[in-house]
Amino acid sequence: MGWTQVSYHYDGNFAGFLCCVFEAYLHKEAPACFLGPEDGRLSLWPERQVATVDAHARRVYQSLEPKLGPQGRQLVVYGFLTCLPEKEMALWAFLRLGYARGPGVVRDLTDDRVSTLAKAVQHLTGEAHLLKGFTRFSEQEGLLIGEIAPKNRVLPLLRPHFCTRYPEEAFVLYDRTHKEALFYRPRQWAIIPLAEFRLNGPGREELDFRRLWRRFYDTIAIEGRYNPKCRMTHMPKRYWGTMTEFQREQEGLKP
Q1: Vertex 39: Cα angle to 38 and 45 (nearest 5)
Q2: Residue 236: its pLDDT value, please?
Q3: C-alpha to C-alpha distance for 242 and 102, rounded to whole angstroms
Q4: What dihedral angle (degrees, nearest 10) is formed by the CA atoms of 245, 247, 253, 255?
Q5: How far apart are the C-alpha atoms of 198 and 182, rounded to whole Å?
Q6: Which of 130-145 are b and which e, b meaning 16 or more Cβ less than 10 Å from the residue's Cβ?
Q7: Cα–Cα distance, 32 to 42 (Å, whole number)
Q8: Number of C-beta neighbours around residue 75 at 10 A
Q9: What's the Cα-to-Cα distance from 161 to each of 78, 83, 149, 154, rounded to whole Å?
């Protein structure tokens, strides 16, 4: 006898998703879709409101490594951070397969349920790697401020890098896309939702530092090897909007 298909409504967080997995196995239900608080879609399936219960989320999380192995657990955790459409359904399909097959499932890249998730996670980690080099911070009133506009939720992956790189600084790194920010001060950090993020205009000293950085960037360029297509291959244009060296016009400066 097949499992009943149900639409799950949850809080949109990873712990909430794990609670959906708990409920699915408890009630022998097959999720038809997962709907977060801002999801306006209508469903023709029976609906279940899933409350986030820490004990239920912990129980599912603790099952991931024994059932899927360390790599499988990381695929699930990182998979939830990706911009993969219907990521919850992809994660559910992978979990069902992994619980049945065991840790070796991560090597079966011929199965779409594995390869789809693996490719999404590869995109996530690749974007996080690029942003370790493309993120720019500005100093404002003793605080380092940075902004990024990633496709994936990369702040959890960037946190160890920047907290280690600036261990004695206080900084904020804001994700415009997902409206959340990483706050850090020595030995303390938090990633919290932030609907609005407004900055005062840069001071004279900060503007001087930006000009120095742009002058350095322009000086080391080799005019005879100027290749816009090659540059966009290594430094995708969608990152330029938050990079100091491409913000001349925004400050009223001549290129």
Answers
A1: 140
A2: 82
A3: 43
A4: 60
A5: 15
A6: bbeebbbbbeeeeebb
A7: 12
A8: 24
A9: 16, 21, 18, 11
pTM for the whole structure: 0.86
Distance, in Å, from the CA atom of 188 to the CA atom of 167, rounded to the nearest integer, reads 10
Name residues whose C-beta falls within 8 Å of residue 113's C-beta, 6 or more positions apart in sequence.
Answer: 90, 93, 94, 97
Residue 12 DSSP symbol: S
Going across the sheet that includes 143-148, the strands are 137-140, 143-148, 171-175, 180-185, 188-193
User: What would the two tokens of residue 164 be?
Assistant: 């280690």
Q: Average pLDDT in the 131-139 region?
A: 92
Q: In terms of pLDDT, which residue wins out, 110 or 220?
A: 110
CA 132 to chain CA mean position, Å: 13
**Residue found under tokens 């002058």:** 215
Ordered DSSP codes for 84-128: -TTHHHHHHHHHHHHHHH-GGGGG-TTSHHHHHHHHHHHHHHHHH
